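A reminder from the course coordinator: this example appears on the midterm review sheet, so study it carefully.

Given structure:
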């Protein structure tokens, strides 16, 4: 039904800061649609992948998932309505801004706007990154991997899991219980397209992960972020499940952008497992309460004592 996270909608009270961070550090391309109001951020050949919209209230994040066909959009809408969600058709203006041919939207149990779309257009012009980078990974051969994943601190974990896993059909990848409960779900070979964390602090956006094709581009972003150390919410490290090596940069809206590399792909033979922790090394989470942060450090020491390592996944 859903084949990828194809774009996100970012409602921000600080549009200029977002454009600055996205272009200079992450290396995205900004194309203004309406100056001071809406900006399309590109990271590949598609017309937009992060749609920034200026707002005066609290920052918001919405997720745009693409479905395989117009029929799949009708089927998904019926399934959502049967599960009690109110699905709203899109307007021509909304479709034009996103560059999609069809779209419907609803609000998930934690209040996020979720869009199901079809026909995200390719841009008429090539992608020109904001700094010299090797590009972002959104495909593996013919397979659409989407832009990355979102990780959310759930307010109502059970209701969120029910929606994404049972209603929308995201398959479980794996789960961890320390330093907090988190479950990961996939819709394509990317290890996860959504992560739900039960931190007791939600609902809140934890992060959006974007994946570079080249390792050196993570390092250069890290160099730039180090000039303002407080902008780094999670230090350089490597995840134990998707094997992504990354760090987390605070966005102007408080939530984080995970900039990573070399996520592994999973296949039909994938087995769900209980993770020993979230990371193989690094990823010091500055935002965790001191006791949880210490627990995370101890997990890393235990994993190190076991000599746990993982191969680097090919990135094509
Ligand atoms: Fe992540």
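Designed residues:
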């Amino acid at each position: 039904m859903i084949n990828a996270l194809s774009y996100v909608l970012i409602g921000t009270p600080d549009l200029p800061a977002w454009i600055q961070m996205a272009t200079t550090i992450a290396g995205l391309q900004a194309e203004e649609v309406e100056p001071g109001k809406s900006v399309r951020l590109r990271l590949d050949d598609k017309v937009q992948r992060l749609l920034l919209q200026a707002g005066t209230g609290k920052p918001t994040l919405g997720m745009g998932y693409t479905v395989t066909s117009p029929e799949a959009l009708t089927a998904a809408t019926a399934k959502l309505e049967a599960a009690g969600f109110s699905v709203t058709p899109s307007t021509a203006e909304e479709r034009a801004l996103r560059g999609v041919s069809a779209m419907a939207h609803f609000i998930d149990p934690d209040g996020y706007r979720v869009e199901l779309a079809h026909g995200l257009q390719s841009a008429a012009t090539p992608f020109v990154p904001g700094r010299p980078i090797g590009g972002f990974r959104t495909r593996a051969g013919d397979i659409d991997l989407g832009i990355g994943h979102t990780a959310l601190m759930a307010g109502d974990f059970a209701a969120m899991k029910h929606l994404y896993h049972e209603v929308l059909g995201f398959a479980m990848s794996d789960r961890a219980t320390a330093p907090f409960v988190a479950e990961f779900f996939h819709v394509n070979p990317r290890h996860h397209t959504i992560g739900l964390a039960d931190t007791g602090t939600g609902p809140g956006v934890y992060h959006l992960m974007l994946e570079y094709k080249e390792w050196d581009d993570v390092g250069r972003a890290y160099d730039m972020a180090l000039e303002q150390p407080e902008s780094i919410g999670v230090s350089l490290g490597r995840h134990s499940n998707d094997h992504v090596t990354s760090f987390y940069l605070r966005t102007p809206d408080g939530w984080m952008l995970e900039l990573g590399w070399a996520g592994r792909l999973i296949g039909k033979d994938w087995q769900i497992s209980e993770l020993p922790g979230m990371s193989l090394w690094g990823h010091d989470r500055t935002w965790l309460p001191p006791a949880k942060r210490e627990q995370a450090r101890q997990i890393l020491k235990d994993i190190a004592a076991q000599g746990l390592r993982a191969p680097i996944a090919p990135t094509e």
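The pocket of fe (ii) ion is lined by residues 149, 151, 207, 209, 258 (CB under 6 Å). The longest helix spans residues 290-306.
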